[in-house]
Each structure stands twice: as structure tokens, then as C-alpha cells.
Amino acid sequence: MAVLIQVRDAHKRFGDQVLLDGAELSLVDDVKIGFIGRNGAGKSTLLRALLGNEELEKGEVIHHPSLRIGYLRQHDPFQAGESAMDFLMRDSGEPDWRCGEVAGQFELKGDYLNGPVKELSGGWQTRVKLAALLLHDPNMLMLDEPTNFLDLRTQILLEHFLRDFSKAALIVSHDRAFLKATCSQTLELSRGKLIMYPGKIDSFLEYREERREHDRRVNSTVIAKQKQLQRFIEKNRASAATASQARSKAKQLEKLQTTEIQVDEPTVNIRPPSVDPRSGTALRCESMAIGYPANKELEAHVVADQINFEIEHGQRVAIVGDNGQGKTTLLRTIVHSLEPMDGTMKWGYGVEIGTYAQHVYTSLDERQTVLENLEYSSDSNTTRQDLLAMAGALLFRDEHINKKVKVLSGGERARLCMAGLLLGTANVLVLDEPGNHLDVETVEALAEALDLYKGTVIFTSHDRHFVRRVANRVVEVRDGTVKTYFGDYDSYLATVEAEIDEGERQRGKASGKSDSDSGAKPKGVEHRERGKDSRKTEKELKNLEKKIAKLDDEKKDLTKKMLKETNPNEALKQHEAIEKIKAELVEAEERWLELSDFS
């Protein structure tokens, strides 16, 4: 196991903000790592340092001689007029057949491969960039927020690509579902320190919260003891008879120390708009068509028609579908940014709509400060404390609340728009990709707030964890129409996964791959061979059952010990042992199922 990149004693700051404070890191050649941290913590700075594009104030970054980094470019690398095939051949120097073979892994074919690449959507352009990465044969991938603006299908294709990629990867993302599906370890940057955890993101977040809760309980006990000792000292130090006891207690008091709880302050806590719950129909669409009217340059374009659906007050509706199918067009229509091209759309009585979308946060009043904008947007009953708390939750703290809107970045304007919306009185929220520009903790806090919200939510999001947390209804935009999906979000995900798997099977057949090509035996032959030795199979099944029961008991015992462990290093060792047992369990259970099928 070679160390491809090593970081030693890294220090970096911007002004008064410390980004790296003696950070240490080793990246090995066969591990995929999810890299998380609060916005502004320094993740992108560290990536640039690893790439050699950012100098450290102190410390060093050491590259292995065999290192070949594949970095997902965020900028536009395409030339005017060139096709995706032209770009892939120019960028990689590989022949057209090889470029076409790799492009097929990302469903790039036909006009998507041979038409002008600059006319493709952002998601399809990302597919082209990923194909280019693979053509360079990297042994270390670095992906910075790769799922931003990618539709579900492209995300799943990217997951499959990473699943089959046998080398190392470092992936910065706030998308928990994506990190869980692709990364076996988790790296966190917090307060200038790098913390490597040998497990997936969900386990890491649970472990981190357990540690913090343990530290809080210990601190409460220590503080109570400190107060008790302090009272005794103050009461008895003046008396000659008890002065020696007071001195003894003072020494005990000096030894009692609380544990610093490693958490970025202030903790994100977003409150939803306070509205009265309503019942009945919030929105009704009948025979509606959506699209864009004719202008001097373009003819009228219908994106989807014959749209019939209703949304009830209190529902949280996820609008799903591939990029380019019309999700944003639908949202723009229902908030009156576009007029329906046909049919009718009617909102219920007393509806107040709050909108979060790019066309909103790019039109903020640039003369206002952050604080002035929030005061203007908020409910008249909002206290200054509530206003500052919401600003802080969306990362506007201290002097940042006095910044002018005109100097804010696109991400900062988006967060400001979200803060103002949540401080308002809207009883219907229409949100287009609300998780973009927010980190893991803030996305989770937003999901919790929307869960408590008494109004109606209509939203799009490519973050599967967020959609699963928030949505209780799914509406799909596909093939020129909009319809209610009869099933929950998990069943919708399963449908898309099945379609992608079928596409990959078809491409495998088209490229001439088969069981016999790969050296695998036909299933019928395997079946007969297993049948020849049924006694051996039965014995192995019994041994596996004993092994599974034993491993399960060991896992339970270790889990109990880990939860009680007070030493973080020991807890990490126990977690590693648990993960190893889990892997053995999966292997044993899969073998048991395989043998059961043919016994």
C-alpha cells in the first residue's frame, strides 16, 4: 500500500482565519475518502495545495513519483465549435475508438458525443470531463463538489464509475448519500486540523456526536464537582481548624479540567417560518403547458404539456427528473416567473409564496448590507437576536453582517436569500436546489427546519439524502409531461438505478462482453457442478451459520465497548475491528445465500 500524497505540519491562514494548523495527512493508493468540513474551513485551499497550485506558509506536501492526479475541472476547458469527441481526442491524445469506448460509460453517444459540446447542459459537460479524466489513467482522483448541478441519473453514473475505479480518490462533497455510496473513509477539516476516520460518513457523524455527547456529560460532572470544591474552599480557608483541608481541596480543584468539545460554533440551528397550518388544495394545474414564448431570435418552445396535478396544503413535494426535462421551467411557471403556455394554474386562497432560485438571488438590492437585507426580508415580529442567529446559521457572522450585497459572491448571495426567506411569513416555499452552497451540517439543519415547517414545500434537489429527509410526495417531469410518481422517493431511486443497470448491460452486450468472454462459467454449469457435491455444500452451510452467529455476537460486544470507551484512539481501534467484522459478515452471508440457492 503506497502513500501517494503526504502532508506534513501544514500551516495556512487568510487574514485572521486559520485554515491549516499543523495539519497531517497520508493518502494511500487504494482508498476512496470523503472530505467534509464547514464552508470556509479550507477544503478547497487544501485541494489546491495538494495539486501544487497553492503554497503553504509552513510544512510540505510530498508526492510519490508514480502519482498521476486526475482533477475534475470546474472551469470550461472546451474550445468553440468542438464536439465532445473532438475534446476527448485533443485532451487525451487517444484515438477515436478509445475515446468513444470510455465516453460510452457515461452514456455519451449520438449528438451528445458528436454535437457542439458547449451546447450541452452542465451535467452532460461534467460527463465529458469525467470521460477525459479516465482517459488519462490517473491513480488518484480529486473531485471538488462533483454532484453540484448533476441530475440523479448522472450522479448514479458517477457512482458506478467510482465503484469500478480501483485506484484512490479524494472527494469533497456535502452530499451525504453520494459520499456514503462511494467512499469507505471520511476526512474532516475542522479548526485547522485534519481528522481521518476509518469508516463511512454516517458512521463518522454518529461517532462524532457520541463523542461530543460523552464530553458534555463528563464536563457537566466536572463543573458540578468544581463548584462543590469551590464552595468548600471559600467556606473553610479562613478557619485555622479547616485551612489544611481547604488547601487539599484547592489542589484537587486545580487538577479538574473540562474537555474542549471540538465543534464549530455557533452550531447550525435553523428555524422555519412561523405559519398557521392550512388544509385543502394549495395548487391545482389542469391541462397546463409550460415552456418559453417566441421572441425575435427563437420560436415558441413547449417543454411539457397536458399537466394535471394538485398539491395539498402541508405537503412537501419533490420535483424530480433528469436535467433538461423541465423541472426549473415548472417551478418558474408556478411562481409566475413564466406564464403557462396553455391550460390553467390556480393557487388556493390566502397563499403567500416564498421563492429560492437563482433568478431571485441574482437580483438582490446591491446597495443594502447583509443586515439591512435581512431586516427588510424578515417578519415584523422577528427579534434582532433571531435575525442574527439566522444570519449566523447561514455563515454571516461578526463583521460579515455589515458587508454590502454588491461584494458578495454567488454562494453568499444564495445563502442570504435563503436566510431572508426563512425569516419571512411565506406559507408556501418553492425552492430550486436549496442545498447548493451549503455544507453538510447546514443542509441537515435546513432539512430539520423544513420537517417542522407547517406550510407547503415544493422543491428540486439533487441531494438524495436531503430529498429523502424532506419529501413526502414525488412529482416527475419526464418525456414532455409532468405526473405524480406513485411510490416514495426510494422506489423512484430504485427505478432509475434499474434503468441505468439495464443500459450498462446493453452496452456490455454491444461491446461483445459476455460471461464466457470474462472467463465466468455459465450458470447452468455452475449449478450442476455444485449439485455434484451436495454433502460438502450442506457441511459448508452449517459452518457458515455458526460463523455468522459468532461474528454477530462479536460485533455486538465490540459495539457496546466502543460506546462506553472514553479514549478516542481506543474507540477508533474498536470501530476498525467492527468494520472488519461487518465485511466478514457480508462475505459470509453472501456465500450462505449463494449456497442456499443451489443446495
TrEMBL record:
The record's annotation in PROSITE patterns points to: ABC_TRANSPORTER_1, ABC_TRANSPORTER_2
Q: Where is the composition biased (Basic and acidic residues)?
A: 503-541
Cite the InterPro entries for this sequence: AAA+_ATPase, ABC_tran_C, ABC_tran_Xtn, ABC_transporter-like_ATP-bd, ABC_transporter-like_CS, ABCF_ATPase, P-loop_NTPase, Val-tRNA_synth_C_sf
The record ties this protein, via SUPFAM superfamilies, to:
P-loop containing nucleoside triphosphate hydrolases
Occurrences of domain ABC transporter (ranges):
5-223, 283-504
- CDD domains per record: ABCF_EF-3 (cd03221)
Q: Which UniProt keywords apply?
A: ATP-binding, Nucleotide-binding
Q: Name one GO molecular function term.
A: ATP binding
Keyword Transcription regulation assigned to the entry: answer is: no
> Membrane-crossing residues?
none
Location of region: Disordered: 500-541
Which protein, by its recorded name, is this? Putative ABC transporter ATP-binding protein YheS
Q: Which organism is it from?
A: Rubripirellula lacrimiformis
Q: Which gene encodes it?
A: yheS
